[in-house]
């Protein structure tokens, strides 16, 4: 942007706008893509003298009034989301943020919760802090917190009595899977307890059911190998999921047939199931 140094000082306020300031104003109009608009110029205040084009990859503006120097071409480097954030035209939403409710207490406060974890091979992953588990006093559930990096994104609660329905309850966001473990290989399992149970050997990823949520894709990209290991009665589903993953670009997927639910196996048995041939890698 060039500045006109000979401007009438009375108008300096508007005319002396920096390129950045102009850009901010231009963007604040939120001109739709592929549209050119004529507007009253906010820089010189003349009627209908400003032309703004929102091109595929450029924002172009130009004032036709002889006395006005407002013009510029800005190559778009920012996504619309970034732009919105910068110009703060709408509040940044934190729909993914999950606030842990007050009534989630330590699992040590409930014997049934502790028993459940021990009986389902989750206790070890809990004491080794691979997973954050709470007890929901209100719903009488053992609750597995879903984390992404260090942020809590949601939670999944397992009912501790037969009277509580549903058996599994999803709190908050459903598009981030529950994961447990730090291994390079992952296994898709049906629920959080199974994910914890395998976490000594592999990273367990809970599907929370027997179908695949497409938004899990980005949470699986980092793994070398992806196993699909559902209960025996869901073998067809396991193959469906594996096919779907292949179709979605994962070429490292393998179905593992199980005799029983993974949460009833101990570490040695799990190692044998997945890395039968010998030493794990
Ligand atoms: Zn102008």
Strand arrangement, largest sheet?
A: 5-6-7-8-9
Uncertain ranges: 1-14, 89-93
The end-to-end distance, rounded to whole angstroms, is: 59 Å
CATH architectural arrangement of the largest domain: 3-Layer(aba) Sandwich
Which of globular, elongated, flat, extended, rod-shaped describes the shape? elongated
User: How much is the average pLDDT?
Assistant: 84
What fraction of residues sit in β-strands?
Answer: 15-25%
CATH topology of the largest domain: Dna Topoisomerase Vi A Subunit, Chain: A, domain 2
* N-to-C order of helices and strands: HHEEEEHEHHEEEEEEHEHEHEH
The Rg value, from CA coordinates, equals 28 Å
Bound molecules: zinc ion
Give the biggest sheet.
5 strands, antiparallel
Number of DSSP strands? Answer: 14
What class would the helix/strand composition place it in? alpha+beta
The helix tally amounts to 9
Q: How many domains is the backbone divided into?
A: 2
What is the CATH domain class of the largest domain? Alpha Beta
Helix fraction, binned, reads 10-25%
